[in-house]
Each structure stands twice: as C-alpha cells, then as structure tokens.
Specification:
- With 458 residues, the protein is of the alpha/beta class.
- Helix content is 34%, strand content 13%.
- It contains 15 helices and ten strands.
- A ten-stranded mixed β-sheet has the order 2-1-3-5-4-9-10-8-6-7, with helices on both faces.
- Strand 9 and strand 10 form a beta hairpin.
- Helix 9 packs across helix 11 and helix 9 crosses helix 12.
- The structure holds glutamine.
- The site of glutamine has 14 residues, from strand 3.
- Belongs to the amidase family. GatA subfamily.
- Subunit of the heterotrimeric GatCAB amidotransferase (AdT) complex, composed of A, B and C subunits.
C-alpha cells in the first residue's frame, strides 16, 4: 500500500463505520454501536498512512441541511471564531455549519484536522463546505465505495471529501477512488477507464497547465432563484470573469428540469430511507426500549414501535412516514414514479449540455457545442444562524422562505440525482462576512477535470 497520506489527520463522519470508535449516526438508535469492522474508505485511509483522529457530528442518519438534528446537539460554524481577531472573539455569531456533514466541515475549518470524510446524498458535503469556507467534493456516484457506510438513500449516497485546499481533497480522493468488489454499486474498472478516455481529449488542462484555454464553462440559468442572495451572484460573476481571463469561454445553458429536482429528491430520498431504516427495529439492530412499567410487550411489533418512537428523532420519523406513504400502492404512481421520471429528465438535461458523452449510456450522444463543466453558486445564502432549523425570526416572508431547511439544497440536489461529480470551492465572503462557495459540476467520471477547475478558482 502506498503511504501517500502519511501524517494526514482525517476526521470521519459518524455514519461511516470505524472499529476503533462508536458509529452513532448521531442517533439515540445507535448511541452505543461499535462496528466490528472499518468501512472500506477507512481501511484505505489507514492503509495510505492517514491518522483517523475521530468521528464527526452530523444530522441524524444524514438527514438535514443545518446539522441541527443530532442527538449530540448542533454543530456551530467555527469560521468566524477561527478567523476572528481578539476584539471580536467574544462576540462571534452562532451560525450553522451546514448539514448533514457539519462536523466534518467544521473540524476542517477549525484546523482540527487536514481533511474529513463526509457523505453527500443531496448536498451534505457541498453545503457545509460552502457555509464553513472549505473545499468539499461529492464524487461521481459509484467511484468511492459505500461498503461500511450506513445507508440513507442508496441510489444517491456518496462518500465525499472535505479539506482546506483542492489539492488535499484530490490526494484523499485519489486514494479512495478504487473499485471495491464488496460494493455492488461500485463503478467497474472498465467504466472508470472509459470515462478517463472520454474526458481526455476534451480536457484542456490535461497537461496540468494552469491555463484554461479552450475550456467551455456552462452557466445554468435555472440556478439563480429569487431567494439567491445578491452578494453571491456578485462573487460568482467575479469567479467567471477570472476564468474567462485565463482562456475559458462562458456559455449560458439550461437544465429545465431543475425546478422539479428538490421535490423529486425528497420523495426518492425519503422512500429509500424508509426502507433502509426498517432494519433498526430494536430486535436485530439498534436501541431496544424497555417496556413501560406494568406492561409486558407481547408482540415484537410492540418492541419495534416503542423502540423506534423513542430513539429516532423527529426529522427521521417524518422522513420514514413520508417515504412509506410515497411507496404505498395508492401513492406510488403520483409520487415515487413521478419523482423517478423527474430524475430521468434531469439526467437527460445534463447529458444535453455536456460535450463529453456519458459513458454510462449504451449509445451516448453529446452536442459538439456542449460545455466541459458547469459553474453555479453552491448555496442560496451564507450560513444561517443556529436555532430553529433555519426558520429564524423574520418579518419578511421571502427571507423566511430563503432560510427554510429544505430549500438550502436547491442548488445541490440536481447533481446528486444525476450522479455527477460536484465540487464546492470557497470563492469569497458575502456582505455579512461569512463564506460563499461556488460549485463546479462535470460529466460522470470527470472528477479530475472538476478538481482542476476547482484549483483554478481557489
Ligand atoms: N439536506 C438533504 C437532506 O436532508 C441532503 C442530506 C445529505 O446529503 N445527506 O436529505
């Protein structure tokens, strides 16, 4: 094994199994769970010489955008405290670190580690990266093994990497991006090689030259919703101008199905979660609630109901109910099937704009005048204040909407539904002095190109 990560201190999100620490998923359901094995990603990290220094707080089972749904309590964004001068240190604002990989992003931002692993199902690496001012990569679906990662929504879950610089993230990604025969959804050697060949001729920076001469950057017009803070648009424009100055061309593009992505994501993710979390029944896995005094639970369904009601938090219970409903015979066609149709539209929309063809399709076609990557804001706002799941007191309806927890994912879920690589890179500070991230999205398997464009932005 190479020891290319030797001395790198890495924190691991608490839904990734480690034999040397508990793996709680930030849930009372698993508060004492210790895995007998390391997840493949942890084994690879250790094999490459990295020090796994501890587990990072997260939203319960990865469900959330603000890291407020955790049995361990919320994660406070360390950005201001870490960068504050002594005079303002006493006065730092308590803002969210983002979720669900809030502990991973916060530990990197606070300098407690060099890199961290998170998971990204609909934005949980990119959103905290943006809020905390660090780099966060959600790789192409299937490139990094999910074996030993506690499933939230398998068809979307990806292990992602957070770090202070694109270079550190790339070093970790290079170690983790290998085929794992234990993960049935892992991309095969053949598919990886096809993607490498497909992206090569279109990759103007393949020679590692800092110039982006010839790179075609698409700017998706649907990624500027009314809730987007104006200072974020300004920062994105500055980044685009900088990339143009070093040879890239900017092309407005459309991903029309974006408007339906958030609703489709929450139906699909909840449906899969309702099925995945069924195993935590207090019988085979997880916390078993003691019977109330004087009552003997007679049926295993009593144990099941009592254990789950007592140990799953509100957000998780809400998703299980929503997901179970979406999968019932009565609702299936209107909800789950419709959401899957939207997912197909989104994939088609992306394939229509990339000039690098998708190696996942049997007969791919791609527009000659397509783009190599897309660039858009990572989030609609800077980190929201902690407390109240983003619904902080506001008299202005629009800004209350902009703070709602689910809306925070509006920029990140389309790439998740399409399984594409997406990298959030810090690009400046908003008018409130908190970090703003921009995201680079590429065709499936073009993670290296996405990282190279990210390097040009930082
Ligand atoms: N915020 C999204 C959700 O709550 C995404 C979470 C994630 O990527 N794990 O489902």
């Amino acid at each position: 094994m190479p020891s290319s990560l030797s001395q790198l201190r890495v924190a691991v999100k608490d839904n990734i199994c480690t034999s040397s620490f508990t793996t709680t998923c930030s849930s009372a359901m698993l508060s004492h769970y210790r895995s007998p094995f390391d997840a493949t990603v942890v084994r690879l990290l250790r094999g490459a010489g990295a020090h796994v220094i501890g587990k990072a707080n997260c939203d319960e089972f990865g469900m959330g955008s603000l890291n407020e749904h955790s049995v361990h309590g919320p994660v406070t964004n360390p950005f201001q405290a870490h960068n504050a001068t002594d005079t303002v240190r006493d006065n730092v604002e308590r803002r969210s670190a983002g979720g669900s990989s809030g502990g991973s992003a916060a530990s990197v931002a606070a300098g407690m580690c060099d890199a961290a692993l998170g998971t990204d199902t609909g934005g949980s690496v990119r959103l905290p990266a943006s809020y905390c001012g660090v780099v966060g990569l959600k790789p192409s679906y299937g490139l990094i093994s999910r074996w030993g990662v506690i499933s939230f929504a398998d068809s979307l879950d990806c292990v992602g990497v957070l770090g202070k610089s694109v270079d550190t993230v790339k070093q970790v990604f290079d170690i983790l991006s290998v085929h794992d025969p234990r993960d049935p959804t892992a991309a095969t050697h053949h598919l990886r090689e096809k993607a490498r060949i497909a992206s090569d001729p279109c990759c103007p920076t393949a020679d590692c030259s800092p110039s982006l001469q010839g790179l075609r950057i698409g700017v998706p017009q649907e990624y500027f919703p009314s809730e987007l803070e104006p200072s974020i648009v300004h920062i994105l424009r500055t980044v685009l101008r900088r990339l143009e100055a070093v040879g890239a061309s900017l092309i407005p593009v459309n991903i029309p199905a974006t408007q339906f992505a958030l609703s489709a994501y929450y139906v699909i993710a909840s449906a899969e979660a309702s099925s995945n979390l069924a195993r935590f029944d207090g019988v085979r896995y997880g916390f078993r609630a003691p019977a109330p005094s004087g009552v003997t639970p007679t049926k295993s369904s009593d144990v099941y109901a009592l254990s789950r009601s007592k140990s799953f938090g509100n957000e998780v219970q809400k998703r299980i109910l929503l997901g179970t409903y979406a999968l019932t015979a009565d609702a299936f066609d209107n909800y789950f099937l419709q959401a899957q149709r939207v997912r197909t539209h989104i994939k088609t929309d992306f394939n229509k704009v990339f000039r690098i063809p998708s190696v996942q399709l049997a007969s791919p076609s791609s527009p000659e005048a397509g783009v190599d990557v897309l660039l858009h804001p990572s989030a609609i706002r800077t980190a929201p204040p902690l407390g109240g799941s983003g619904h902080e007191a506001s008299t202005d309806d629009d800004s209350a909407l902009g703070s709602s927890e689910y809306l925070q994912d509006v920029m990140t879920v389309p790439a998740s539904l399409a399984g594409l690589p997406a990298l959030s890179v810090p690009a400046g500070l908003g008018t409130d002095g908190w970090p703003v991230g921009v995201s680079v999205v590429g065709q499936w398997g073009c993670d290296d190109l996405v990282l190279r464009v990210g390097e040009a932005i930082e």
